[in-house]
Automatic annotation (TrEMBL):
Keyword Repeat appears in the UniProt entry: no
Location of this fragment in the whole protein: 621 to 888 of 1053
Protein name: histidine kinase
Keyword Cell membrane: yes
Compartments in which it is found: Cell membrane
Record key words, sorted: ATP-binding, Cell membrane, Coiled coil, Kinase, Membrane, Nucleotide-binding, Phosphoprotein, Transferase, Transmembrane, Transmembrane helix, Two-component regulatory system
Histidine kinase domain mapped to chain residues: 41-255
Primary subcellular site in the record, as a coarse category: membrane
Length: 268
């Protein structure tokens, strides 16, 4: 939006002149919003795990703790430290992408084993089975396998995280108009209409009572979008509040006759 203010200037020819000055504040506002959200995420997401790491390590330093309790405390410390490391990793990833410094290793690869591999890592986590649907044959694209795995991990992690109490998420790989589409569907909380345009924004989190307990930074989807677009793909989603969400990315299919199947990177 524009801020308008009036400046009076004296001019020898025109006499006293009123000057209307327009200043675009949109960018400034956005920068302020990002700074506020960064401070709030950092204070909450860094301080909460740090407090518990400090608390449990102090108990262990100051008291004699029974071995089974010690095991529990160390596992909490490890879990919280892992969370911190994830947050810092996400933050650095986004910085690197935005600075145009993320490099991509583009190789011909088969999306099928890649999808199977990541889905298998989420199968059974937090009480959710991952139901996989794959097409026949090779699903070749030219892309960066590690980055695609990171994207799929993020989508599956959200699907599981935002469908508490449900026991299944679907992961589908299918062809569509010369592209391969990887789709992750959950049957959970869904996304309110007013939140939909903001979903890929940095630090954006839906602020609803039903998800206040669910940890996160609002960086995951921002990273996913930037990466998929850098890789020449497209990301989209549908969601119905209270029924669930489907996130998908599409990548241009690689024409198989143009590729020697032997050069496909079947694993990382
Ligand atoms: P985070 O999960 O760390 O908050 P994301 O960028 O991954 O950050 O997601 C942003 C917000 O979008 C989340 O806070 C959540 O409210 C909403 N969201 C993301 N994925 C889903 C999903 N599958 N179902 C419902 N809401 C989702």
């Amino acid at each position: 939006y524009f801020e308008v203010y009036v400046q009076r200037i004296e001019d020898v020819v025109w006499g006293s002149v009123k000057l209307f000055v327009f200043r675009d504040r949109t960018k400034e506002e956005e920068t302020n919003r990002l700074r506020d959200e960064f401070v709030s995420v950092v204070s909450h997401e860094l301080r909460t795990p740090l407090a518990s790491i400090l608390g449990f390590s102090e108990i262990m330093l100051n008291r004699s703790v029974k071995p089974e309790k010690a095991q529990k405390y160390i596992s909490t410390i490890h879990g919280e430290a892992t969370r911190l490391s994830g947050l810092i990793g996400d933050f650095l990833d986004l910085q690197r992408i935005e600075a145009g410094k993320q490099s991509y290793r583009m190789l011909p690869l088969d999306l099928k084993p890649l999808t199977e591999d990541v889905a298998a890592q989420w199968d059974g986590r937090a009480g959710h089975a991952v139901r996989l649907t794959l097409p026949e044959g090779v699903c070749a694209v030219r892309s960066d396998g590690d980055r695609l795995k990171q994207v799929l991990h993020n989508l599956l992690s959200n699907a599981v995280k935002y469908s508490p109490g449900k026991d299944v998420v679907d992961c589908v790989l299918r062809p569509e108009d010369g592209r391969w589409v990887v789709e992750v569907r959950d049957y959970g909380l869904g996304i309110p209409e007013d939140a939909k345009p903001k979903m890929f924004g940095k630090f954006y989190r839906v602020d609803n009572s039903d998800r206040r307990q669910i940890g996160g930074t609002g960086l995951g989807l921002a990273i996913v979008k930037e990466m998929i677009e850098d890789l020449g793909g497209e990301i989209s989603f549908d969601s119905v509040l209270g029924e669930g969400s489907t996130f998908r990315f599409a990548l241009p299919a690689l024409d198989l006759p143009a590729v020697d199947e032997a050069v496909l990177v079947l694993e990382d």
